[in-house]
Amino acid sequence: TLGGVEANSFGNIAIKMNGSGFAGRFFADGVGAGNSIGALQVTGLGTFNGNIATPGAIGSFTETGSSFGGSLVSGENLGPVTITTGSVNASGVIDAGMTLNGFTLTGGSFNGTLLAGRAASINLASMGAGSLVNVSKDTSSFSVTGADAGTVMLAATSSFHVGGILSSTVHITGDLGSA
Question: Is there a cis peptide before residue 55, judged by omega within 30 degrees of 0?
Fold first, then answer.
């Protein structure tokens, strides 16, 4: 069996890393009327290599001052997701089965995988080679402040912006409002 904590649902989860990171697991197996996981807050130094998963919804995820190398998986809606002064490592996976209600990464590079059925705004500081953003339906807006060297696959977006060098592969299968 997998280790970690399993429950029908969680209210708020606060993870305080002390420099050695976090590699635990939280799994909410219920799909209730509200969020299966209310809010997750990760603070401290180290790398978050944990696994947070539910077939239901996750209300919000914030991480400050550390790297994200784990997985955040929601079968329904997810977010908003905010990672401040940290990076998403190549092993990092964010997956919203339905709508990603915003994703913001400041202060570091996105090198992982982001998957969503739909997405509100996606704002990244930069995208590294090998990174992937794939939204199967509409995305409100997509913005990379710095360089974009990853792969971006969107069905449609009202706004697409890259502030640095665009050396990536970008596929928009539907309409693009403005670039």
Answer: no
Q: Which residues of the chain have pLDDT under 70?
A: 1-2, 31-35
Q: What does the pLDDT look like over 76-121, one tens digit per residue? A: 999 999 999 899 999 999 999 999 999 999 989 999 999 999 999 9
SS3 58: strand
User: Helix or strand or coil: residue 162?
Assistant: strand
Measured between alpha carbons, how far is 16 from 58 in angstroms, rounded to an integer?
Answer: 19
**So what's the pLDDT on residue 24?**
93
Alpha carbon of residue 21 to chain centroid: 18
Judge contact between 15 and 42, C-beta under 8 A: yes
Paired tokens of 173 = 């299968």
What pLDDT shows up at residue 163? 92
Q: Which residues pair with 27 in a beta bridge?
A: 6, 53
Q: What is the dihedral of CA 167, 112, 151, 116, to 10 degrees?
A: -140
Q: Are 73 and 95 in contact (CB under 8 A)?
A: yes
Reading the block at residue 21, the tokens are 């990171």
Number of helices (H), then strands (E), belonging to the chain: the values are: 0, 19
